[in-house]
Amino acid sequence: MEQFLQQIASGLANGAIYACVALALVMIYVSTDHINFAQGEMAMFSTYISWQLMTWGLSFWAAFVLAVAISFLMGVLIERLILRPLHNAPVLSIIVVFIGLLAIFNSVAGAIWSYLIKEYPSPFPKSSFGIAGVIGPHQLGVVMVTLIVLGLLFIFFRYTPLGLAMRAAAQNPQMARLVGVRVDWMLALGWGLAASVGAVAGIMVAHIVYLDPNMMAGILLYAFASALVGGISNPAGAVAGGFIVGILENMVAYAGNQIEKATGVYIIGNGEKLTVALIIVIFVLTVKPAGLFGRVVVKRV
Amino acid sequence: MRTNRRGFVGGASALAMMSVAAPAVRAQKKYSDGASDTEIKVGHTGPYSGPASSYGQIGKTLEAYWKGVNDAGGVNGRKIKFLTLDDGYNPAKIVELTRQLVEQEKVLCLFNTLGTANNTAIHKYMNQKKVPQLYVATGASKWGKPKEFPWTMGFQPDYHTEGVIYAKHILANVKDPKIGVLMQNDDYGKDYWDGFKEGLGKDSGKVVKHVTFEVTDPTVDSQVIQLKDSGANVFFNIATPKAAAQAIRKAADIGWKPVQYLNNVSASVGSVMKPAGLDNSQGIITAQYLKDPTDKQWENTDDFKAWVAWMDKWMPGSNKADANHVFGFAVASLMHETLKKCGDELTRENVMRQAANFQKYKLPLLLPGITINTSPSDYYPIQSVQLARFKGETWDLFGDVMSAEGS
Amino acid sequence: MASASKKWVLGIVVLAFVVPLLQPVLPDVVSDYRLFLVSTMIIASIAVLGLNLLTGFNGQFSLGHGAFYAVGAYTAAVLMDQLNVPYWATIPAAAIVCFIVGYLFGLPALKLEGHYLALATFALALAVPQILKYKWLEGLTGGVQGIVLMKPEVPFGLPLTEDQWLYYFCLIVMVVLFWAAANMLNSRSGRAMMAIRDQYMAADTMGIDTALYKTVTFGISAAYTGIAGALSASAIAFVAPDSFNIFLSIKFLIGLVVGGIGSLTGSVIGGIFYVLVDNSAQALSQFVKNDLGLPFDLSAYTVFGVLLIAIIYLMPMGIAGGVAMAWRKMRSAR
Question: Which partner from A224, B19, B115, B176 sits 20 to 30 angstroms from B298, CA to CA?
Fold first, then answer.
């Protein structure tokens, strides 16, 4: 029973990481209709920036705020400089550009900061909260931060004029332009926001997986799956998707363990946990093709 | 410089020594592809990109080392042309690159190509072509088979032997051991695991839980929880630095306090013990053969000081805490010595002959008491390790230097 | 027009067959290594063509074609290793196995569209290395250690080197497969495939069995890529699970896009690019370091990234599309 709780808790904590990166993916998808393969590497780069600021003497939260702001600018610049000129290119071509960005961010980070893993501090008090033995304070902190980011995004898109304008620009660019929304700048803002959310994710993740240029490689795969599970256009769905993938994966390993314990036969274990989790997800998707949280859109032909 | 070569017997090495001592013996000059009066071509591939890019640092160290050698006049008057290519840790790519190095560039030998799967992919080819594949950067046990593969030689103590040593130590020192094993699910992990099982012998039932993880897994938390739940009181950690550090920390986080054994691959103070938390790392046992660059006890030894000076000159700005720089320097020193010993007979046969002819050679940066020993039937240059326990901020060596001859 | 391009293709194929025979005359230009390099390009072209049939001509998206490549490679490897099947016989076997796997995968994929199909194929790519390592299959697949194989031997006592033979073998397979693809695309079925891509609803209403076409296309596409995998197992003479990671699939995608989506010629260009891009990135980074003498270390991976972005900048429709457009511009200018 203890193991069961610990596995759930650890799945929840991992899920929060996936959810955070998945949120950034969804942000870009919602505002520009692209899936950004370089999202993980951008987040990694932002995390290095915050690390650099801290080694220059800034406090954690000062470095956090500054790194998120720098990332916002970085996102806007990437959209304006690299993607703007390509706005007529096919979706698949854009994916290749993203892979190019991924390679550049990864190798430049390696060249500047080396590939050696670095410790990254946790901003959360060591043992004043968190349930000892089941979930650590940092893990709990990550879950909370993820939910806070989700809440802020919700408020931003629902209640602020800028957020509404961004949604309008994404959903119906022509109409938005007619009512005076500067659509192209909205896209750049979307990129900026996504890069910021990514920075938050990277900074939260780095304490757990350590800081190195490849730290996001594995996580991006999971985040990508999470975003799709939740219905790629839905921030809340992405967060739920992250938790689902994180917990489901641990539960698969746990179930495999119990089966092995009971029968002595190895059927599934740690090697297969992601595979089995994804198979379950895909099975569900074939039954419910619009995604777990997506709405069925009726297209006019 | 070093004089311990004096006792050698055997025509080839005597010849080599003569030519080292007296370069006047010009009549003896013999060359294979890749060597000439002015140049020796040495090939290398490593992961400068992709998931294992932290090991790319080894290649950069090698490159800097040869630059230093050339700056000082080269090897017996010949400059080393070091060709290093990025294989991205991909077996398909290394086959193509190796052929480029051997057939287009016509290198004298390949040196320190990295990765078990990668070296396996070119193993047969190199031996068919009869081109030396020297001092490969992987500890699999298959690199020391001179009968089947006379052109391939390893460098570091093999994983298999190291596994045996841990198993024996556990059986001798831990009362009623219940062992939990965390293993990276690839051939490197498997080699350790096979050696470990062999070392346990009839006691292999003492392993109560064996869990694996993939390199792409973001964390190993779930696996460590399973290990704790199994009631294990010994933890054998077969993981590369990042996952090893995560596992040590997670064990402490969930209040699991087994006796911990950590594979040498991750026995780095700077990139494992510190990130895992020094408190959490106390008492961990590992096996070592190289001096840890973050370990203060070596600061005043001659070879270490020489290495620090070399780093400052040839790799300024690089992180000295990175053990890859130590590894690269040591293995390059051995290659350097091998080529020196070849003298003017720079044929592929002679390179292998010299590589298989080291007796108690003291390589810089090896632990005191560990030397290089090879022979035509022994293709494992380093076979000794010493156990060490983590104490405070350094490794505390204990016991004798151990070797598992004949395994 | 059609006959003119046919002549061109025929000319190139003849040239491809003749060039290796020049080895005695130009040993350094037509070296074994170069032929091997071209063989790997041919293999990559076939894999990219497989993906192109699915994505370019049928409009289904796949992020996981590396999985079929792996299945093909392992089918060939296991047959050669366990049953001593000759290498040439593994090609049809790999095609059949991959067709079945692809067809079966295409069935649930029918229910998934766009990004969900991407997820499913992506999951497949992630799953394959794990399945190859799976405990109960270890006896067959060699587990994490993979399988070491023999290189194909030259048959009938032909006076060829191993690499020349491998080159001819790959070339023959390639010509057959491209010819088959061209004929298929020109047929009724091919037009139906493309109709589904362009006007799904219309195709459906006109009585095209869209479900059947989509799943069969999936199967054929998988078979093509699987054949490429089987060829690669023979060429590299080694298979290991971790070489079939997600990045392999992504590189096929890069080859597809850079070569040209929905173009047979584009598939060939994509295959060439797939092999050349790494090498040229390395050469460029060496050039920057040694010849330009820049003080900073520009890694090959950075150059790779810049190259990708630059190509999409110059030719957003891929090289085949870009060249075609330039050709048209030139003609209209005249």
Answer: B115
DSSP SS3 for A238: helix
Say which CATH topology domain B11-157+298-376 has. Answer: Rossmann fold (3.40.50)
Q: Let me know if residue A298 belongs to a domain.
A: no
Which residues in C46-76 are b (16+ Cβ under 10 Å) and which e?
Answer: bbbbbbbbbbbbbbbbbbbbbbbbbbbbbbb
> Which residue has 């020193």 as its token pair?
B333
Which chains are within 8 Å of A by 3+ CB pairs? B, C
Taking the model in full, what pTM does it have? 0.88
Mean pLDDT computed over B32-46: 91
Helix (H) or strand (E) segment spanning residue B186: none
pLDDT mean values, one per 10 residues, chain A (301 residues)? 82 88 87 85 95 94 95 94 86 89 92 86 70 72 90 89 86 84 86 93 91 88 84 84 90 85 77 79 73 56 47
Q: What is the pLDDT of residues B235-244, one digit of tens each?
A: 999 998 889 9
Tell me which fold the domain C31-333 belongs to.
Answer: ABC transporter involved in vitamin B12 uptake, BtuC (1.10.3470)
A234 in a structural domain: no
- Identify which of B376, B387, B363, B356 has the alpha carbon closest to the alpha carbon of residue B161: B387
Same fold, B11-157+298-376 and B159-288+387-403: yes
The structural domains of chain B, with segments of one domain joined by +, span 11-157+298-376, 159-288+387-403
d(CA C231, CA C152): 10
pLDDT tens digits, residue range B95-136?
989 999 999 889 999 999 998 889 999 999 999 999 999 999
Q: What are phi and psi of B256, to 5 degrees?
A: -100, 120
Asked whether the ipTM of the predicted complex exceeds the cut of 0.90, the reply is no
Question: How many domains would you assign to chain A?
Answer: 1
Closest in C134, C250, C309 to A272, CB measured: C134
In chain C, domain spans: 1-30, 31-333
Name the residue of chain A whose CA is nearest to B219's CA: A209
d(CA C228, CA C236): 12
Q: Can you give the residue range of the structural domain that contains A65?
A: 2-215
**Domain B159-288+387-403 coded CATH 3.40.50.2300:** yes
Judge whether A120 and A51 are in contact, CB under 8 Å.
yes
Q: What does the mean pLDDT of chain B come to?
A: 87
Chain C residue with the nearest C-alpha to that of A101: C305
B266, two tokens: 């991750």
Inter-chain contact C296–A111, Cβ cutoff 8 Å?
yes
Domain assignment present for A171: yes
Interface probe for B, chosen from A17, A114, A211, A216 (most Cβ of B below 10 Å), is A114
Distance from CA of A265 to the nearest CA of B (A): 14
